[in-house]
Each structure stands twice: as C-alpha cells, then as structure tokens.
Amino acid sequence: MNTPQNxxxxxxxxxxxxxxxxxxxxxxxxxxxxxxxxxxxAQTDAEFAKANQEYARGxxxxxxxxxxxxxxxxxxxxNVFYDLxxxxxxxxxxxxxxxxxxxxxxxxxxxxxxxxNLQIARDEAHALELQPSWPERHLQFxxxxxxxxxxxxxxxVAAFCLAALIFTRRRSAAMKSLLVVMLLVFAGAMFATWQxxxxxxxxxxxxxxxxDVQARLATADTANAVLALPPGSxxxxxxxxxxxxxxxxxxxxxxxxxxxxAERVRL
Length: 267
Prior knowledge:
Layout: H1 13-56, H2 60-72, H3 78-90, H4 94-107, H5 112-125, H6 134-139, H7 144-167, H8 173-197, E1 205-208, E2 213-216, E3 225-229, E4 234-241, E5 244-249, E6 253-258, E7 262-264
Antiparallel strand pairs: 1-4, 1-7, 2-3, 4-5, 5-6
Helix pairs in contact: 1-2, 2-3, 3-4, 4-5, 7-8
C-alpha cells in the first residue's frame, strides 16, 4: 500500500520554485535597501566635507548655505550645528551663532568645544541669559532624554516586580523593596523631566537673532520698552499672538517681541 510521505523530498520541483523566487526577491530587496542607505550616507558625508572645505577656505557664507542645506535634509547632528555656529560667528552674526551652539548642545549635552565657543559668543554679543530655577540647577547633570530612559526602565522593572508579586506564592522582601525603589526612581525621573522641559533650557527656549530688539509691554512697536535684548539673548516662549511672542525674559521680566526676531532652539 502506498502511504503519503511528508518529507520535503516529496514536494514537486514546480512547487518549490515559487519559494526560491520569493527568497531571492527578499535578498534582492534587502541588498537594494542596503545599497541605497550606503549611497545616501556617502552623499551626506560628501556634502558635509564640501561645507567644511568652504569654511576652511574662508568662504563662510557658502559654508552657511551648505550646512543649512544639510539641516533642511534632516541631517541633524551636534557637529553640523557646531560648525554652522562657527560659520555664523565668523560673519559676525552672534545671534545665530549662539542659536546653533545651543542646538548642538541640545543634541549632545557634553560637547566641550561647543560649550567654550558658546561662552565666547555670549561675551562678544553681551547676550542675556535666563536664570534656572533651583530644582533645575540641581537636575542639570543629566539630560531630558536620559531621565526619560531612566523612567522607562524603572517603569518596566516595577511592572515586572508587581507581576511577580501577584502571580507567585512566595512574596520575598527583596522583590517588594525593588518595587518600591523602582517606583521612586520612576517618580523622580518623571519629575526631573517635567522640571527640565518647563525650565530655562526646555522646549520653549528661544534665542534672539535680530538686532536692536526691544521687549515691549504690548504687541506694538510704539509700546513702552521692557528690556533691550542683544543678539543671542535667551527667552522662554509663553504664548504667541499673530506676529508677536509673549516671553519670559532675563532679569525675571516678561514682554512681547516680534516673532521674526527670535527662533526656538528645538526644531
């Protein structure tokens, strides 16, 4: 009696061909994607090198255009913003130099060259800085991203501990202690994230890029001035009304400035 066989050898060749074709198609697609990515990275590196060459030759305006083209294409990195800041510094545009140094530091908090050049630019421009609150001063040893990662890790470890305590018969003191510690870490990391996000270096931070900028009491160029803001000064955007920004200013003041005279650090 003939019995059916389940081995792969019994599958007709014509049935195996589509499988081979599908595998081959997957390999071709994966290889094409890899080649496309490598080509894109190579093109980006070439454009960055070209921008650096323009800077080295003293063609600072051309370098600025090249760096900004990279940024418009989504090529954000601390080095690109740092070099763009240097190029703006060379042409005497201290406001945009400081803006791009700040953007570099928002991506890479510990970037010594950027920190040093930022201070030089501030001194040259006599730029005003926002004063951080006392919780913010004590929380600045880590970034918002690092606190967010710590909160996520603590949350999942706490969830694992809670599940272990619920579904196992033996509820050890060590597991309970770990749960309490992780909940405290989660709460502390979330508090730190909230404080830094609403603080002087948070998402509302903007840099004055215009010249002879006056913060005013109302949304009119004829309104009384509150504070003169040199290029590169920090402000915290509180709200907007048409072409005007209502902002927290250095020296614990508040006022309105024209939106064209300031740019947010975070893109």
